[in-house]
Design brief:
The complex is a heterodimer of chains A (172) and B (282).
Chain A: H1 2-21, H2 38-42, H3 50-68, H4 73-92, H5 105-132, H6 139-171
Chain B: H1 2-10, H2 12-32, H3 45-59, H4 63-91, E1 111-121, E2 130-132, E3 145-147, E4 152-159, E5 164-168, E6 176-180, E7 186-190, E8 198-205, E9 215-218, E10 230-239, E11 245-252, E12 261-267, H5 270-281
Antiparallel strand pairs in B: 1-2, 1-12, 2-5, 3-4, 3-12, 4-5, 6-7, 6-9, 7-8, 8-11, 9-10, 10-11
The chains are: A mainly alpha (172), B alpha+beta (282).
Chain lengths: 172, 282
């Protein structure tokens, strides 16, 4: 349990910092933006109470908002991602998981983890970019931005997860 | 009653979700209403300092380019100085010419400049903001113009003691009154949210002669910017069939994605002009 809390705190600080200091500057082809900090929400243990998941996602979103000058936008997107997390897990992976398991390649299998990531990231990006473009509505451009951003974020998350697995094996 | 309570406790994550979504909705709405609290923005001191650390680190990255640019600019200014000096020398002995008389010493240039570092910047969102490392303590107030060495950047929107947030051209809330330098016809410049290199100049009357490559400068009507500050060049233009106005695509002279140093323009007479115009309307 303590182990999980420490690891989650570590993920929170590292990925929110990486997001606000580096990834916020990246704008691939002037369309796709990576939002790697969602990784923190993905890695919360399966048994986390839904209320805690929601509060944590709100906090994460608000922290990123502070740095992006976009009060509420990331918070709302993270809330939606945090809200669908559990239904998505039970849909793709099933309900018979011990409360301690943290989503990863080894616990969810490669395909399972990728499907789970894709679903949560899609929800997050859809809400985020939808809110952002509320003032300037341009449907096809919006769709393109969402798809490219999802591809970029998921690619980054899969890569980070690979490194993470190796690091943890190294520790053992 | 008991069943209802049980139900509410079992489904409490729904309540939390609705509550927090409402909170973020309110935040977004207040932002959209342009009443952004200075608290949740980079004008906030803690975030400002964190951002300035990364800003300082980034500012070392392209020192070489900036150096060459500054040297080139220095050379240009020196050349201008020499030509002007030469012209002055020519005109001094000629007492017949009127304009050789030195200007009235009572009339002084009402603009001052404050140099500031960019500590946070974005070009990738639909509404972009820039944070600079000078604020109220340095005499900066909302509504002042901001330029860089290459041209117009934007307008100050919020200030705290040591930081200020700039609303750049790359924000659809920003409208800038501009004119064609060649013909002096004016229009209004906005950004469509697509490409950080181009903005759109609208409301140009239909009879105006316009060419690709025409220089666009500030009109000076708003008292925020002095007249004649570089904005960009006409990239292409089109006339709509059902419209009496041209709209032109303008290639901005400022490269917002590599912005490092800016100048804030303080106009002593800005308030006076605004008050007078307000009075005339009423």
């Amino acid at each position: 349990m303590i182990n999980h809390i420490i690891r989650s705190l570590f993920y929170f600080f590292v990925f929110v910092l990486v997001q606000v200091l580096f990834l916020n500057q990246i704008h691939f082809l002037r369309m796709a933006m990576p939002f790697l900090y969602v990784y923190f929400l993905l890695k919360l243990p399966v048994g986390t109470l839904r209320i805690y998941t929601l509060l944590l996602s709100f906090l994460t979103g608000l922290t990123v908002d502070f740095f992006c000058n976009t009060p509420g936008m990331h918070a709302a997107a993270c809330m939606c991602a945090g809200f669908v997390r559990e239904p998505v897990i039970s849909f793709f992976i099933g309900k018979d998981l011990s409360a301690d398991t943290s989503p990863s390649y080894s616990t969810f299998k490669y395909g399972g983890f990728m499907r789970y990531t894709l679903a949560v990231v899609l929800v997050h990006h859809f809400v985020l970019l939808m809110i952002e473009s509320m003032t300037l509505f341009d449907f096809w451009f919006l769709l393109l931005r969402i798809l490219l951003s999802v591809v970029l974020t998921c690619g980054l998350i899969f890569a980070v997860e690979l490194i993470d697995v190796k690091l943890q094996k190294g520790e053992k | 009653m008991r069943k209802l309570l049980d139900f509410l406790i079992r489904q409490r994550h729904w309540l939390v979700f609705i509550l927090l979504i409402t909170v973020s909705g309110v935040l977004i709405y207040r932002n959209a209403a342009y009443q952004r609290t200075v608290f949740i923005s980079s004008a906030n001191v803690v975030v400002g300092y964190a951002a300035s650390v990364s800003g300082y680190a980034n500012s070392y990255l392209n020192l070489r380019e900036i150096n060459t640019e500054l040297t080139a600019r220095n050379g240009n200014l020196e050349k201008q100085l020499l030509t002007l000096q030469q012209r002055l020398e020519h005109q001094k002995p000629d007492t017949v010419l009127n304009f050789a008389v030195p200007g009235d010493s009572a009339e002084h240039f009402p603009y001052h400049f404050v140099i500031a570092k960019v500590v946070n910047n974005s070009v990738i969102h639909l509404s972009n903001y820039i944070t600079i490392g000078k604020g109220r303590k340095h005499g900066i107030a909302p509504g002042m113009g901001v330029i860089s060495d290459h041209g117009v950047v934007g307008i100050i929107s919020h200030v705290s003691d040591y930081f200020a947030v700039v609303l750049p051209i790359l924000n659809p809330k920003h409208r800038l009154s501009c004119k064609l330098s060649r013909t002096n016809y004016f229009g209004s410049l906005v950004w469509n949210g697509r490409d950080a290199r181009y903005a759109q100049l609208d409301e140009l009357p239909r009879h105006v002669q316009i060419q690709e490559g025409d220089t666009i400068v500030t009109s000076g009507y708003s008292a925020i910017f002095p007249a004649g500050i570089m904005v960009g060049k006409v990239y292409n233009f089109q006339r709509h069939h059902d419209d009496n106005f041209y709209s032109a695509e303008v290639e901005l002279s400022v490269d917002f994605s590599s912005l490092n140093d800016v100048h804030v323009i303080i106009n002593e007479r800005q308030e006076e002009q605004a008050d007078l115009e307000q009075e005339a309307i009423q």
